[in-house]
Amino acid sequence: MKPGRKLILEAVLIPLAILLAFWGLYYFRPPSPSKKMTIAFSGVITAGVSFFVALAVALFILKRRLEKEHNSKFGFGELLQIIDETDVRVIQDSAKDIVFIILMWGSLSTALVDMGFERGVIYVINFAVMCVMICLPVFLAIGVLFIDFPIFLYARFVGKDGSPGSKEIFLGSFLSLVFLVVVGLVASYSDVHIEAIRPILNFYREEPTVYRYVLLLSGSEALYSLQGMLIYSKKRKLGILLILLTVPLIAYTLFKTLMWTHSH
Fold this sequence. Notes:
The protein is mainly α. The protein folds into 2 domains: 3-115, no CATH class; 122-263, no CATH class. Helix content is 82%, strand content 0%. It has 9 helices and no strands. The protein has helices spanning 3-28, 41-70, 79-85, 88-115, 117-158, 167-189, 198-206, 208-231, 236-263. Helix 6 runs antiparallel to helix 8.
C-alpha cells in the first residue's frame, strides 16, 4: 500500500481500534462493578450510523485540503489518485485532522452506547453546549494571551506589519457569547421545565458568579478582535491603547474562571 493511503487508513483504524478496546475493557473487565459499561442496542446502532457520518466529514475535509493544495477541483472518485500524488507531509497533517474527528466521534458515541439513544443524545447536547459556553472562551483566552497578543507585540518590536485579533477569535467568542446570553435569558425570564436542558440552566442558577466571569471573558475576547480588525487598522495609537486595556481584562477573567474549574 502506498504511504499516503496507509496514513489515511491508520488515521481511521487506530483510534477506532482504541475506542473498541476501551468499550470491551469496561464491559468485560471493568475496574469495579459500578463502572461496568452498559451497552444499549439503540446506542450501538446510532453510534454505527454516526461513524459513517463522521468518516464522510473527515473525507470531505481531506478532499478540500487536497483541492487547496493542488489548486484544482476533483471528485471523490479521484481522491485515492490525488492522495498518491500528494506530498506525504501534507497527508500527515490531514491525517491528524481525521484522527481528531474520529476521536470526537468516539467520545460522543461512548455516551450513546452507554446510555442509549435518548439519554445519550441529551448528554451530548448538554456537553456540547457547556463546552461552547465554558471551554471555548477559555481556550480562546489562552490563545489570545499566549499566542496572538505576544506575536503582535513581537511584530511591533521588529517593525513588521500585523494586527491583533482575527476573524476566527471573533466568531468563536461571539458564538459563546450568544449561547451564554440565551441561556441567561431563558433561565431568568422563562419557567422552563425541560429535563434535557436542566444542567445547562443550572449552570446559570447555581453558579451566577462564574457565569458572569465567562460572559465577560467571551465579551472581552470579541472586543479584542474587533479592536484589532476595525480600530487598529485605521487608528493605530487608539487601537493599541484599547487593546492594552482589554488584554488585562481577559487575563483577569480567565484566571477567575480557571480558579473555579480547579475548585470543582
